[in-house]
Specification:
CATH topology of the largest domain: FAD/NAD(P)-binding domain
Low-confidence stretches: none
Distance between the termini: 37 Å
Bound molecules: flavin-adenine dinucleotide
């Protein structure tokens, strides 16, 4: 029977980053992935020779000296990634009431660009970016050098994003425009925290990039790091049980047959699923499990991938958010079965290419739209599901046309995914895009510590703190700090 220092369940960004950090520190790690393809949401698959990204369209804070750049540099992967910096004059374009507003990169350009549409709002916009900077300053490279992964930001978790925007400006259009990319954090007026809004928007305003050739390059590079440090990374290895003996985790069962042992287990899987896999133990109380099980998750996403005919669609080096309602925040009542907003993102396989190869269109989708197919598995959902996806795609096209947005180019073929795809491939609860909701009204409730009551079972990944490339990286650090110590790890990464 194999024995490791640390088993990591799941090869999403969180699992691979923990594997890279801990293997570099001399731990003998083994990362287990249930799917054939590694990477979870950092996974790119191929259809008709085109690369389709599952869960990453752009990432932020990647300029030199910025926080994600420093993390990737520490992993030794930064120089290996093929990236394209999005348009500085407008990395995001928000269409609201059929007018276009650009988010420019850099704090001053951001303010200046929006001032063209809202000339009386300069001071308010400056206050807004100051607040974003304040949230961003919780996780700087300087903090790392001082031995701190993240300064305490609880006050921002207790602030409503929508409320902060309406305190910043009384102009209702500007409030909505500033919330225009809320799809990035599953934005809900009544729940979203200013921490999430601030952390994510700040990171893109600092330095927004798109992967050229798919986000999976991050996963593959991290796997190289783990393997070159002597670690093991296995695919087609679903953990079917986390074994507990005498109130200690002793190992895991893989694919219902093989057992491997370890001193520690780190789960990159949704906490609800993690505890479903864990043997019953006195250490993990029912009250804790009930709390985890009762936590709400963000809505999911329907994605239509348009495979474009060669050289027919001009590449746009930005993301476009279209809003068809006055209120840009997601509201289940109004959105169920409807298309009210979408994000359009283009991929080109090469740097500086003129044409897009794939256009991804994302729109929020709640699992309730898919109850009819709840008990089905991929490839076996039947004709009605295919028709449902076709109707949703048609509604998406109708919506885009109604907004007066012209999608140029000729579509060769279309592939679609729904929250059920995410539920079945990444094991996220209800196909939620970003996992457990953090609600500003009760910020403590949605918080899950990396440590569990079982001393050698740790958690990591998007559900703990913040999702996305930056949030998950931060959480990987917090998880690994449980074994290595925060000061030691932070200083090491900060000075890398
Ligand atoms: C549609 C969409 C678009 C997004 N766009 C962006 C974006 O543009 N920018 C950004 O920063 N973020 C984006 N995100 C969010 C980002 O992709 C995620 O927050 C992040 O990748 C999650 O990483 P993770 O490691 O926590 O989990 P995951 O990527 O979900 O990884 C979990 C892994 O565990 C594996 N697993 C599950 N159960 C088992 C088991 N029993 N045994 C073994 N393995 C198991 C899964 O197969 C998976 O590989 C997007 C997300 C979605 C859904």
């Amino acid at each position: 029977m194999s024995k490791y220092d640390i088993i990591i369940i799941g090869s999403g960004l969180g699992g691979l980053e923990c594997g890279a950090i801990l293997s570099k520190e001399g731990y003998n790690v083994c990362v287990l992935e249930k799917n054939g393809l590694f990477g979870g949401c950092f996974q790119t698959y191929t259809r008709k020779g085109r690369l389709l990204d599952t869960g990453i369209h752009y990432i932020g804070s990647l300029d030199e000296g910025q926080i994600l750049h420093q993390y990737f540099r520490n992993f030794g992967i930064m120089d290996k990634l093929k990236l394209c910096r999005l348009d500085a004059e407008g990395f995001d374009r928000i269409y609201y009431k059929q007018k276009a507003y650009d988010y420019a990169m850099g704090y001053e350009p951001f303010v200046e660009t929006l001032c063209r549409s809202f000339p009386k709002e300069r001071e308010n916009l400056q206050r807004y970016v100051s607040l974003l900077k304040e949230v961003g300053s919780l996780i700087t490279v300087d903090n790392l050098k001082q031995g701190i992964i993240s300064k305490e930001g609880m006050k921002f978790f207790g602030m409503s994003a929508a409320q902060v925007l309406s305190d910043i400006t009384s102009n209702p259009d500007l409030q909505e425009v500033l919330a225009g990319s809320a799809l990035l954090y599953g934005g809900v007026r009544d729940a979203s925290t200013f921490y999430h809004h601030g952390m994510i928007n700040n990171s893109y305003i600092e330095g927004a990039y798109r992967f050229v050739g798919g986000s999976m390059q991050v996963s593959l590079e991290l796997i190289n790091v783990i393997r070159s440090n002597g670690g093991t990374v296995r695919n087609n290895s679903e953990v079917t049980r986390i074994i507990v003996e005498n109130e200690q985790v002793t190992g895991v069962e893989i694919n219902h047959e093989e057992i491997i042992e370890a001193d520690y287990v780190i789960s990159n899987v949704h906490p609800k699923r993690t505890f479903e896999l864990t043997d019953k133990t006195r250490s993990i109380r029912n009250a804790y499990l009930s709390r985890i099980n009762s936590l709400e998750n963000t809505y999911g996403v329907f994605t239509a991938y348009l495979l474009m005919k060669k050289d027919s669609c001009l590449y746009q080096n930005r993301n476009t958010y279209l809003h068809g309602t006055q209120d840009v925040w997601y509201d289940k009542q109004n959105h169920l079965g409807q298309v009210n907003s979408c994000l359009i993102s283009m991929q080109s396989p090469e740097m500086n290419r003129r044409f897009a190869e794939v256009v991804s269109i994302l729109t929020p989708m709640h699992i309730d739209e898919l109850r009819e197919w709840e008990h089905t598995t991929p490839e076996n959902r039947g004709e009605a599901y295919r028709q449902f996806k076709k109707a949703k795609t048609d509604a998406l096209f109708d919506f885009i046309e109604k907004q007066g947005f012209a999608l140029d180019g000729e579509v060769e073929s279309i592939y679609t995914t729904t929250p059920l795809s995410y539920r079945d491939y990444t094991a996220t609860v209800n196909g939620s895009a970003y996992g457990i909701i953090k609600n500003y009204k009760c910020p403590q409730v949605g918080f899950i510590s990396a440590k569990t009551k079982l001393k050698n079972l740790l958690l990591t990944g998007q559900n703990l703190n913040v999702h996305g490339a930056l949030g998950v990286t931060l959480t990987s650090m917090i998880t690994c700090a449980c074994l290595l110590g925060e000061e030691y790890l932070a200083k090491k990464v900060g000075n890398a």
